[in-house]
Design a protein that fits this description.
Helix content: 25-40%
Radius of gyration: 15 Å
Largest sheet: 5 strands, mixed
Number of strands: 5
Structural class: alpha+beta
Strand order of the largest sheet: 1-2-3-5-4
Length: about 140
């Protein structure tokens, strides 16, 4: 009950998906109320962050699989932070994050592009990092 139907729908949908895959799913969502970020742009960021997190967790075998989501509003900014367990460091030797998905008849790797483009559209910031067998995606979007 964040006050934003799009955020609520994404969180509830992905929580159910995580439960079906035996992935621990926790979330903290501030009351967002009316925000100016378009629903399609919230999806471009939050749904893609969570899709990536759940897919990464499916590859984890030797430790707890988890996704932790935080959606916060502070002043004129909305923050979407997703943390998840990973089987290995997703960055290459140059520090670049690439899609690790197998190529087949489906399009892969566009989630990262969609997130970056949406962040740019809202004059925001994107930071992805790996630490202690955990991947963290930080997104900040201007609201207003």
């Amino acid at each position: 009950q964040s006050g934003n139907r799009t955020v609520d729908a994404i969180i509830n949908c992905k929580k159910t998906e995580a439960q079906e895959k035996n992935i621990a799913f926790t979330f903290t969502v501030d009351f967002l109320g009316e925000i100016t970020i378009k629903a399609i742009d919230i999806c471009a960021v939050l749904a893609n962050q969570l899709d990536n997190a759940l897919e990464a967790c499916e590859k984890v075998i030797s430790m707890e699989r988890f996704v932790d989501v935080q959606v916060r509003r502070k002043n004129d900014f909305v923050f979407m932070i997703v943390k998840n367990s990973v089987a290995q460091n997703p960055f290459d030797e140059n520090g670049t994050l690439h899609s690790k998905k197998m190529q087949d008849d489906r399009i892969h790797g566009l989630g990262l592009v969609n997130i970056a483009e949406t962040v740019k559209k809202y004059d925001g910031n994107l930071k992805n990092e790996y630490r202690d067998q955990m991947f963290v995606s930080y997104v900040m979007l201007q609201n207003g």
